[in-house]
Write a structure and sequence with these properties.
By secondary structure, this protein is mainly alpha-helical. It has three domains: 57 residues; 130 residues, no CATH class; 218 residues, MetI-like fold. The chain contains 19 helices and three strands.
Length: 433
């Protein structure tokens, strides 16, 4: 007992115990700081998603108004010849207006009629035109049609425009609100899924605007980026890691590659503007130019990831292949590269995910133009999803706010899928040596 007491009271033992307590306390603090940092990051991410989602989810539905539309032959094809040229240039807007006047016969004054016509989107006339072009036999008949409502009516139905606001402070007037209420009571107002948002290009009218043009433009741009950056980046990584001699030139190249990875993306946009557009006269606002610029920006990421993946392959693989008589090239391409490919692919996907969310370099090369048509190739004028977000965020109409948030949700979805693919790819094919 005396010995035990002496050991416990020994100053050296007390000092060691005090040091251990401090070390354990420091470890607990470090663990707490780590968990707190993760919690703050997750909270900020949740706030971001909730903020964007709360503003953008309503863009996935669109208000429609049901009307009895009479396809008046006098307005569409007075001669009755059913020629495609005549049908394509007919007054379908007049058909919509006549249907509204028939639905509200009490509206007589010119001012009230203008407000009445404002309930329906101008795009409804194009929808009627497509119907008649597809089936001219509808001329002279009355059809129950579901037409796209205007953006102001859409915002009113979705609650983004308050009825309590004074009439002078909101874009939709009291008489229009009364007409919308009559249509709602009659069951003529519906909010189906907004398929047009995913199938149409950009438009000046918010209710007609879609992201399909931007999605196709992003696809072509990423296709060019991948076709340029992946083979050249992997080739550069293989050369620098496996074949290049250790020299001042190789060290200089390595330093510059690391520096390029930290260069702001807008600098690459300035390079594209000065070289590809002004010097080589490449087509402005085309995916081929955007893809080349983003490929330059993605090069360093792929090279660095590729070198790290090649370096992670054990030297024993190289030695065993060389011992069996394989040449240096065979060692690299038959043995080392297949084992390093999962890491290279992971780095490539991460680099592409960064590229798909870039806006600044694409703005510098003119991809900020208003593009309505869906691009058919890499040389056609196009927009991309981040630029589409930028354009709509600057639009004055309230309806573009929800479409901006909805497009951001789609873009975030693409980024999450690409990063998840990188993680799954790494976990599936990763080898621990």
């Amino acid at each position: 007992m005396n010995k035990s007491q002496n050991i416990q009271e020994n100053p050296t033992t007390r000092k060691i115990r005090a040091g251990l307590k401090k070390r354990y306390a420091a470890e607990r603090r470090f663990r707490f700081y780590g968990m707190a940092g993760i919690a703050i990051a997750v909270f900020a991410l949740v706030v971001l998603f909730v903020s964007i989602g709360s503003k953008g989810y309503t863009a996935f539905v669109q208000t429609h108004i049901q009307l009895d539309v009479f396809f008046d032959e006098a307005l569409i094809d007075p001669a009755g010849e059913r020629k495609a040229e005549v049908l394509s240039r007919a007054d379908y807007a007049g058909v919509v207006k006549a249907s509204l006047r028939a639905r509200f016969p009490e509206v007589k004054s010119r001012r009230d009629k203008r407000q009445l016509y404002g309930l329906i989107s101008p795009g409804a006339a194009f929808d009627l035109r497509e119907m008649i072009m597809a089936d001219p036999s509808l001329i002279g008949t009355t059809q129950k049609m579901t037409l796209v409502a205007s953006d102001d009516v859409d915002m009113l139905i979705k609650g983004h425009i308050s009825r309590e606001t004074e009439e002078s402070a909101r874009p939709i007037k009291d008489t229009q609100v009364a007409w919308v209420d009559q249509l709602s009571e009659a069951g003529a107002v519906s909010t189906p899924f907004n398929i047009r948002f995913f199938t149409a290009g950009d438009s000046r009218e918010p209710e007609l605007a879609g992201i399909w043009g931007a999605i196709v433009g992003s696809f072509y741009t990423m296709l060019v980026t991948l076709a340029l950056s992946f083979p050249l980046g992997v080739a550069a990584a293989i050369y620098l890691e496996e074949f290049a001699h250790k020299s001042r030139l190789a060290a200089l190249i390595e330093v510059n590659i690391n520096n390029l990875a930290a260069v702001p993306s807008i600098v690459f946009g300035l390079l594209g503007l000065a070289v590809f557009l002004n010097f080589f006269q490449m087509p402005r606002s085309a995916p081929i130019v955007g893809g080349v610029v983003l490929a330059l920006m993605t090069f360093p990421t792929i090279i660095i990831a590729g070198r790290a993946a090649l370096k992670s392959v054990p030297p024993s693989i190289r030695e065993a292949a060389a011992g069996l008589g394989a040449s240096r090239t065979q060692v690299v391409f038959h043995h080392v590269l297949p084992l390093a490919m999962p890491g290279i692919m992971t780095g490539t996907i991460i680099g592409m995910a960064r590229a798909v969310g870039e806006t600044a370099p694409l703005l510098m090369i003119g991809m900020v133009a208003f593009i309505v048509d869906i691009p058919q190739g890499i040389t056609d004028p196009a927009s991309v999803l981040p630029v589409q977000v930028y354009l709509w965020a600057d639009a004055p109409e309230r309806a573009f706010v929800e479409r901006t948030s909805a497009t951001t949700m789609v873009l975030l979805g693409f980024l999450i899928v690409m990063n998840a693919a990188a993680v799954l790819l790494r976990k599936k094919f990763e080898r621990r040596w």
